[in-house]
Write a structure and sequence with these properties.
Layout lengths: L1 H8 L7 H29 L6 H37 L20 H6 L16 H14 L2 H22 L17 H12 L3 E9 L8 H15 L4 E7 L1 H12 L6 H6 L1 H7 L7 E4 L2 E12 L4 H17 L4 E4 L3 H32 L3 H24 L6 H27 L5 H27 L8 H31 L6 H10 L2 H22 L13
Antiparallel strand pairs: 1-4, 1-5, 2-4, 3-4
Length: about 550
């Protein structure tokens, strides 16, 4: 919306509304379409992840952005046209009552602000630039094109990249379960005390025999014992604290000289075991004289980090697969441990596929392959920066931050794509001039979009929920780094590392500018200078004739 408004303000006030709308859409529609396609595809690519929560989020958000785009090019454009009708008939901005025409010389700034929406040049016919827009063209653009500024920006970027890459290797994997509750929840104090007093003990994992077996068969008994021993031999498992009804039953039968080598005796003598240790009754499921299923428990130890939890999960599952009997290992915490096993691979997969998709869309819609490469490079740079600075801001790599990294993939393309398209679409042949024009057109809308987005989520920074605070942190990093890349790094790269306009393109542009259009450009430049003189030195310019050229 900010870009459409900015493009509308660049049109001539006295032109027909249809012409102003055409010029607005010609300037803004392609840029908006590029970023919408990349955003939507980035989120839909996130559906490839194995996390259901991330899939649902990506479907919802991608569809929402698609509807936002349709709204912008239809409803918002219609409101823009209606406002153009109001301006054309010189009606009040609020009550829409027609305002009496006055001589231009008698119009005050209060009249322009309250009645016709602001001043405009009587000569060029365009609205007067906003002070921020003028700043980007007259001060910031030339400053950024200074060779020493470019060198400083290059050194600054290298420092940013080095610190980001270092941070990427410091990011912690896994979700801390206490972060799923609010700061005031008793759950946090529970996990704090558990870490303080029982940190040496890990989860008590259930080993379930999932099929009906002949437990009385000596060969089957040997397979069960070997399976249990393979679990106990794991360095993360304590032999003394693990529990098996089957091991206890065999030891009891040996001491009491019970016969458990046939079905009837094995089943009948179980009642003795259940009488001595009633809790074992819950570990054996007997139906119609057959043991349908049973379970054992292994106590894990020395599980103190997300890496330990991931290794534990992988090792016990591997052991279960190698057992000679069908077993399943389970603990309620495995739903979180599962994230550790695939979080890195899923993140890399989504990032790589999304970056490739961004490049394809950019190269289709931005008419220059080199600039498309710069957009893709910017996306990768922002993702690396956000991931690296997650470590400095105490954000772990988990399903929550992964959702936000998908947002990062989508939003990181916005500012760079807008600047890149504006850079390659203007008719200047020199890189420095193209940068100034691109900043003049989109500098202020980018600042507006970035500031409004940060203001929209800043309230979440004070939330008691880790999830909301994480959302704010990553959105802030994405928007801040995206704005810095779009307004600082990328414009310098366009000029410092080569012009995106090839020699053939420059020749074609020069050939397209005929003598008449060149005269018009000179005239417009003169008129803009004249407006500046009249504004700042009215007494010095009373005798000047604007029609002199």
């Amino acid at each position: 919306m900010f870009i459409m408004i900015s493009s509308w303000q660049q049109t001539k006030v006295k032109d027909k509304v249809e012409d102003r709308m055409a010029d607005t859409y010609a300037e803004a529609a392609v840029s908006i379409t590029i970023t919408t396609l990349t955003d939507v595809l980035a989120f839909y690519i996130g559906i490839l992840t194995s996390f259901q929560s991330v899939q649902s989020f990506c479907i919802y958000t991608g569809t929402a952005i698609l509807f936002c785009f349709l709204y912008n090019v239809t409803c918002f454009g219609a409101f823009l046209a209606l406002n153009g009708r109001r301006e054309e008939s010189n009606r009040h901005w609020f009550i829409c009552k027609k305002v009496a025409e006055e001589e231009d010389t008698h119009r005050s700034s209060a009249y322009n602000m309250c009645c016709v929406g602001g001043g405009y040049s009587q000569i060029s016919g365009k609205e007067t630039d906003h002070p921020v827009t003028s700043f980007f063209r007259n001060q910031y653009g030339p400053f950024l094109n200074n060779i020493w500024t470019k060198i400083f920006v290059l050194v600054l970027y290298l420092g940013y990249l080095a610190s980001s890459i270092y941070g990427c290797f410091q990011v912690q994997e896994g979700i801390d379960l206490r972060n799923l509750a609010t700061d005031s929840s008793y759950v946090r104090s529970f996990y704090d005390n558990e870490d303080l007093y029982f940190s040496e003990y890990g989860p008590r994992v259930m080993v379930v025999v999932t099929e009906e077996l002949s437990y009385w068969d000596l060969d089957v008994q040997g397979k069960i014992e070997r399976c249990l021993e393979s679990f106990i031999d794991d360095p993360y498992v304590s032999k003394s604290l693990s529990e098996s009804w089957f091991t206890v039953y065999r030891e009891m039968a040996r001491q009491m000289n019970l016969n458990i080598s046939d079905k009837s005796n094995f089943i009948d003598n179980l009642s003795i075991l259940f009488t001595r240790i009633p809790d074992f009754r819950q570990d054996v499921d007997i139906q119609s004289g057959n043991i349908i299923a049973s379970r054992f428990f292994i106590q894990t130890v020395n599980v103190t980090s997300a890496v330990d939890e991931r290794n534990l999960l992988n090792q016990v599952r591997h052991t279960a697969k190698t057992c000679e009997i069908p077993v399943l290992v389970y603990h309620p915490a495995f739903i979180y441990f599962d994230q550790y096993a695939v979080i890195i691979s899923n993140t890399i997969q989504n990032t790589a596929v999304a970056a490739a998709t961004m490049f394809v869309i950019s190269i289709l819609l931005i008419p220059n392959p080199l600039c498309s490469l710069w957009v893709t490079f910017t996306i990768a740079s922002i993702i690396v920066g956000v991931t690296g600075f997650m470590a400095y801001w105490n954000v772990n790599l988990d399903s929550i931050s992964m959702i936000n990294l998908v947002i990062c993939i989508g939003f990181s393309v916005d500012f760079s794509a807008h600047i890149s398209y504006a850079y390659v679409s203007n008719h200047n042949t020199k890189a420095n001039e193209r940068v100034i024009e691109a900043l003049h057109s989109l500098g202020y809308p980018i600042v507006q979009g970035a500031v409004s987005t940060i203001l929209g989520v800043i309230a979440l920074s004070a939330s008691e929920s880790y999830i909301f605070r994480t959302f704010f942190k990553i959105i802030f990093l994405v928007i801040a780094f995206g704005m810095i890349h779009g307004l600082v790094f990328l414009p310098v790269f366009f000029t410092f590392f080569g012009n995106c306009v090839t020699h053939n393109e420059a020749t074609k542009i020069a050939a397209d500018i005929d003598e008449q259009s060149l005269d018009n450009d000179m005239k417009e430049t003169y008129l803009n200078d004249y407006d500046h003189i009249v504004t700042h030195f009215p007494k010095k310019s009373t005798n000047a004739d604007p029609k002199c050229p």
